[in-house]
């Protein structure tokens, strides 16, 4: 009696015709990767268009009453993108678990941890609101104390950002190596290059114990991978 599984058979032979389960997985991975990447891109565009200050800059605290709604929109877009990236990781694991079971499982685990850390750091406006209110209500001589307390809180938030920004590109490298085994070698090499560059940038930030625009290299690299991979899966699902 022949053993039967629910694993996508396409991955045993990428050239064979797609079955319904293969198309559903590819379509789901394509939608989550593409929409997640677009939401994250929209976050960067939104911040640039409105000229919002860096969340860790003192200006973000001082101007919070006038930018609080813009911050809420920014953070919700960012959180939605992170959640979709986490779902994309799970679907990639489902697609790759036959040809690269260990690598895909490791990539999913590392990626999920990275997404969870960034999600915990997403709604900064919730933490900034009470600090801004305390600053506005404090006497002039006491405001410097509030700013110092806010800086201390931002240090915790920055550590979460650096940790997440290091884990996500590491997951991309692992997914890239898994993709080299048949599903999409070209995308696999691109993922390895982009993920390695992102990881190296965050290692520099962690080693110098300071936040930096290098963090953006990691996030943008992750964005590019999810967006390009999502488009690739959508095309494959229609073939």
Structure description:
The protein has eight helices and no strands. With 239 residues, it is mainly alpha-helical.
Q: What would the keywords be for this entry?
A:
239 residues; mainly alpha; disordered N terminus
What is the fold's blueprint, element by element?
Layout: H1 20-50, H2 58-62, H3 64-96, H4 101-120, H5 124-137, H6 143-179, H7 185-208, H8 214-238
Helix pairs in contact: 1-3, 1-8, 3-4, 3-5, 4-6, 5-6, 6-7, 6-8, 7-8
**Termini, distance in Å?**
32 Å
What radius of gyration results from the CA coordinates? Answer: 20 Å
Output the helix-strand order. HHHHHHHH
Query: Average pLDDT value?
Result: 83
State the helicity in percent bands. Answer: over 70%
Structural class: mainly alpha
Q: Work out the strand percent.
A: under 5%
Number of helical regions: 8
Low-confidence stretches: 1-18
> What about the largest sheet?
none
Give the overall shape.
elongated
Number of E-type strands: 0
